[in-house]
Design brief:
helicase, 26 helices, EC 5.6.2.4, alpha/beta, DEAD/DEAH_box_helicase_dom, binds magnesium ion, globular, binds adenosine-5'-diphosphate, Rossmann fold, 3'-5' DNA helicase activity, about 40% helix, DNA repair
Length: about 700
């Protein structure tokens, strides 16, 4: 297939070892273009049309065209600045070519009498049509035109387009692109992979550009389906590998700890809570490790579900570890669990980084001996240096995904080498369905889709910082009515670099603006005891306003608080704003959340805050967050980097995704070799990691 007439040396295939002499070869390695298939999948960013020549007289201003003509005149002009000005003639008309930057070699090519092919945008200049810095090359009369569009690839300075084009052509020739998939798994009327790739690298001139640009062309569909299928297959393999592992079976006991705990609670479970508790208990009863994500909006009551799961595990004679990302959250859990479970005779240990010395040593020993049945602490501490006598269940709060490495660490904690603990992850950032289907294909998901009764709705308002006085007046009103308010700021650690007002300053300002109101301050650098004292005063209702950095994000439950002001709201992630907002509306009073922003806001910034004002549904917020940020950022680069999709789009390609998900098990069962080959083709060495 002719691609370009430009003569460049035929590239050598880069050595897989990474030892290759040419800078272009090295640049290819850097772009991950190692195997032939990698190059075959290195798709053009866009295309150039070198398949036709437009007579100069028929070009119009703004057209991107290729013309061919003979140089009539070429001279370096000095006014208004030094430039090379070339007059080109093709029999139909004249075109001026201007070069502000040019080399002697180029000047030589553009000598009078030379025949050149020129590509660029036509502009209407003072002296008629012209092109500034067009692409050009000398040609013989009658030089054939390209028969397909010319690909323009993602490249780098060391990797010229012409080199890359040749490399792709030869890789396409060599790459084993034989059809691996049986026809019944493929969506109807899609080209083969080879056809799709040949097409996308070198589309015919009459192709509909729109279908290439929006990726709706069947060639694109084929590619996206292949990619999604590879991902589903590898996740399914991982799931089946995990199913071979063994965990202690923890059947719930009639009249056991779980029922006693239920009997003690001051409330009844919601239907949603009952359902997820049953789903978890069914998993725990099996001798195959649970791998489940429990998702539910802020305030949906995940903690009590965790406690009930822990009760089942402890009843069966095993230990349970509950891990939280921060000390404040761990402490909150600890207090709740002590209140619920200690009266039932459960031994609970508390482990965080700030707990040191003898007290800590004693705790660690109680865990190792099995005397402590339930261990609450931060992820870091529990993972670092605690050994369990009989860990049967690990619960991880507020983390999307417990990584492979962390799971392997946890496995080591079990005294019984052949057994793996059950794993329950809890998250208040619900994962939209399409995302769950790809990134969590190996995970079971339970969802609490109902809030406990008696919650009042929160009204969210978005104000520019210029209206802060109004907002402060509103605080005064709330406090006068016996209510309380929060004023939240971005983290104090960041304030120096980001030039944000720090919490101390804001505290002083607000105290001055609100005479007669007790204003407290809470930030991450305060000693734990001081934090606890401030929190206690606020909880008891002795403090009207609490100024705080995001330490309160996951910390507090004060039903009398009815107003939340978030300063520099534009600095926070949507999910974080949602979490913060969840601190009000916990009682029966109508609550308000004010998002103060400091302008000017970008378009994205505006749509983010608007999303917050428009909905209080955590699922909807997560969906919009995903839409605004894209899956990579939404999931956090580290968590998703291994699985990011290159071609498929989770928001658009739902139908392809569902099909891939449906056919993956069939393919794995009926054509295991084809499935294996397909995964290897697409994921290469990454596949092994995904399985871990
Ligand atoms: P989250 O899902 O955000 O972790 P929590 O577990 O902290 O939510 O629960 C929020 C509040 O709701 C807590 O005070 C908790 O005791 C209470 N709660 C949980 N379940 C119920 C229920 N079924 N009825 C009433 N209150 C409940
Ligand atoms: Mg929680």
């Amino acid at each position: 297939m002719p691609v370009t007439a430009e003569s460049v040396p035929l590239p050598q295939r880069p050595a897989p070892s990474g030892r290759t002499a040419s800078p272009a070869g090295k640049a290819m390695l850097k772009l991950g273009l190692v195997r032939d298939i990698d190059l075959a999948l290195h798709l053009p960013l866009r295309y150039e049309d070198e398949t036709r020549i437009t007579p100069i007289a028929r070009t119009r201003e703004g057209d991107h065209v290729q013309v061919e003509g003979v140089v009539q005149r070429a001279q370096v002009e000095l006014q208004p600045r030094r430039q090379l000005v070339v007059r080109l003639h093709d029999g139909s008309g004249e075109l001026t070519l201007r070069f502000i930057h040019f080399y002697a070699a180029q000047q030589k090519i553009l000598a009078p009498g030379a025949r050149v092919r020129v590509r660029g945008e036509v502009r209407g200049g003072f002296f008629g049509r012209e092109m500034v810095h067009p692409v050009f090359r000398p040609v013989e009369p009658g030089t054939p035109l390209a028969t397909s569009l010319t690909p323009v690839y993602p490249a780098s300075a060391q990797l010229p387009q012409a080199y890359l084009r040749k490399a792709v052509v030869s890789a396409l020739g060599r790459a084993p692109l034989n059809e691996l998939l049986p026809p019944q798994v493929l969506p109807a009327s899609l080209p083969t992979l080879r056809q799709a790739l040949d097409f996308l690298h070198h589309p015919p001139p009459d192709v509909s550009m729109a279908t290439l640009e929006d990726h709706s062309h069947p060639a694109w569909q084929r590619l996206k389906f292949e990619e999604l299928l590879a991902q589903q297959l590898s996740q399914l393999q991982a799931q089946r590998e995990r199913a071979k592992l063994r965990a202690p079976a923890l059947p719930a006991r009639e009249g056991g700890l779980r029922q006693q705990l239920l009997g003690q609670l001051p409330f009844g479970l919601t239907n949603a809570q009952e359902r997820v508790v049953a789903e978890i208990a069914a998993d725990l009863a099996l001798s195959q490790p649970m791998h489940r994500l429990l998702q539910g909006d802020v305030g949906s009551g995940k903690t009590v579900v965790a406690a009930l799961a822990a009760a089942v595990a402890m009843d069966a004679g095993w230990q349970c570890a509950l891990m939280a990302p921060t000390e404040i959250l761990a402490e909150q859990h600890f207090r709740k669990l002590v209140q619920w479970l200690e009266p039932l005779g459960v031994g609970i240990a508390w482990l965080t980084g700030s707990r040191k010395g003898k007290a800590r040593q004693q705790m660690v020993e109680r865990v190792a001996s099995g005397e402590a049945q339930l261990i609450v602490g931060t992820h870091a501490v529990i993972q670092q240096d605690v050994h369990f006598a009989r860990l049967g269940l690990a619960i991880v709060d507020e983390q999307h995904r417990f990584g492979v490495a962390q799971r392997l660490e946890l496995r080591k904690k079990l005294a019984h080498e052949a057994l793996e603990p059950h794993l329950l992850m809890m998250s208040a950032t619900p994962i939209p369905r399409t995302l769950a289907m790809t990134y969590y294909a190996d995970l079971d998901v339970s969802t609490i889709d109902e809030l406990p009764p008696g919650r009042s709705p929160i009204v969210t308002k978005v104000f520019a910082d210029g209206r802060r006085e109004e907002v402060i007046a509103r605080i005064a009103d709330e406090v006068a009515n016996g209510r309380q308010a929060y004023w939240v700021l971005p983290l104090i650690e960041e304030s120096e670099t980001l030039d944000l007002r720090n919490a101390t300053e804001a505290h002083a300002e607000l105290q001055a603006a609100l005479p007669g109101v007790k204003v407290g301050l809470l930030h991450g650098r305060m000693p734990a005891a001081e934090k606890a004292a401030v929190m206690a005063e606020f909880s008891a209702g002795h403090m009207g306003l609490l100024v705080a950095t995001t330490v309160i994000e996951v910390g507090v439950d004060v039903p009398n608080a009815s107003l939340m002001v978030i300063e520099h709201a534009e600095r926070f992630g949507l999910s974080q704003l949602h979490q913060l907002r969840g601190r009000v509306g916990r009682g029966a009073v109508a609550s308000v959340c004010v998002l103060l922003y400091t302008g000017p806001l970008s378009q994205t910034g505006k749509s983010r805050l608007r999303a917050m004002a428009e909905t209080t549904d955590g699922f909807e917020i997560a969906r919009r967050d995903l839409e605004i940020r894209g899956p990579g950022e939404f999931m956090g680069a580290r968590q998703s980097g291994d699985a990011l999709l290159r071609f498929a789009d989770l928001l658009q390609d739902t139908a392809l995704l569902e099909r891939a998900r449906r056919v993956a098990p069939k393919l794995l069962d009926s054509y295991p070799e084809a499935a294996q080959a397909h995964v290897a083709r697409w994921l290469g060495s990454k596949a092994e990691f995904l399985k871990a």
